[in-house]
Design goal:
Elements lengths: L1 E2 L12 H12 L7 E3 L4 E8 L2 E8 L6 H11 L8 E6 L7 E5 L7 H10 L5 E6 L4
Parallel strand pairs: 1-5, 5-7
Antiparallel strand pairs: 2-3, 3-4, 6-7
Helix pairs in contact: 2-3
């Protein structure tokens, strides 16, 4: 599960994917387990939910390069595009509205496009978090 955003700009609407992962880590009692994985330039935490092993990932790159971290982690942890969930902001959705998108285009989102390009696939499931338009 990759939370897309701008690592150095925490707390902004554009980095809501990372905020969601922080909350998920708290709910799964692994918030203290974040560690830097220099191999993929990301913060990672391992968790278990409903019998599934999860790798939580927050890229340490800017949004337009998040895909490099996601693709590196996929290779390191032997994950295919269909195993990956991207959590990201969506300006076309009202603030707080949530939707799931199963593969397809990036719909103009640079972080998602970076992931599609780096993984050479658009099969990743996306959790789109509405941030509305400023």
């Amino acid at each position: 599960v990759a939370g897309l955003g701008n690592y150095g700009l925490r707390g902004t609407r554009h980095s809501v994917g990372m905020e969601v992962l922080d909350q998920l880590a708290r709910q799964l009692a692994v918030a203290e387990g974040w560690r830097v994985d220099k191999r993929c330039c990301a913060d990672v935490a391992l968790a278990t939910a409903h019998g599934l092993e999860l790798l939580l990932l927050k890229p340490r790159r800017f949004m337009n390069l998040n895909g490099l971290s996601v693709a590196s982690a996929a290779e390191i942890y032997s994950l295919g595009p269909g195993d990956i969930y991207l959590v990201h902001d969506d300006m076309d959705k009202a603030l707080g509205k949530v939707a799931i998108k199963l593969g397809g285009s990036a719909r103009g989102h640079n972080g998602v496009q970076s992931c599609i390009s780096a993984l050479q696939s658009n099969e990743m499931t996306r959790l789109r978090i509405g941030i509305g338009r400023p």
